[in-house]
Amino acid sequence: MRLIVTEHYNDMSSAAARIIASQVILKPDSVLGLATGSTPIGIYEQLAGWYQKGELDFSKVTTVNLDEYYGLAPDNEQSYHYFMMKHFFSRVNLPKGRQFLPDGTNPDAGRECERYQNLIGLLGGIDVQLLGLGHNGHIGFNEPADAFVKDVHLVELTKQTIEANRRFFERVEDVPRKAYTMGIGTIFQAKKILLVVSGAEKAGILRQVMYGAICPQVPGTILQLHSDVTVVADREAAGF
Ligand code: GLP
Fold it and tell me: Using CA positions, which residue lies closest to atom 12 of ligand 1?
């Protein structure tokens, strides 16, 4: 794992955005694995800014997102479809037909997981996968468990994740209890992984992810085994 430490959140966002921009410049038809949560917002801001200045072109890029809440339609403001549209897709020239996320409205979990897993395979795999880090060490929505799950799956969200994500919802009862997520094997197929972490409250979990024992109870620890992981963290998150 390579660790880049930046001063503040904004520098973290620029450093990570530069890595994604280089990928798109070197390979214009890249497949980008994208993430939601508050941490990557600054990255999307920066990338959209470069596009608006004419410095980046997303016309040949394809994107696949890590996860989506089960039961939420794309026009639901809390859905990850909506998040991606607001923060990124509506601000760049990425073709609509090449923006992929799990379909939260498909109640048939078996079919949806198979469809999304196959889709990523058909795209030829992911060039760079962007990841945030949950407070409990989850990546995507791979929650702490007794075993790692390999493929795209429907996951039961933990109490801690429901609590952590309630800030985006009016009431805690509104936070969906389940989500579709890429599995650890799906994430591992990515050629490069870019993990972004910000803030003092993530310092403990980031230390465990980078240096702790590899175990499914802290899902992010598995990243130690991938051959090309860059962690970009601000000083507060990397202050261990
Ligand atoms: C959600 C997402 C994760 C994300 C995590 C952390 O649970 N499914 O992909 O990494 O939140 O979010 P934040 O960056 O807001 O702390």
Answer: 37
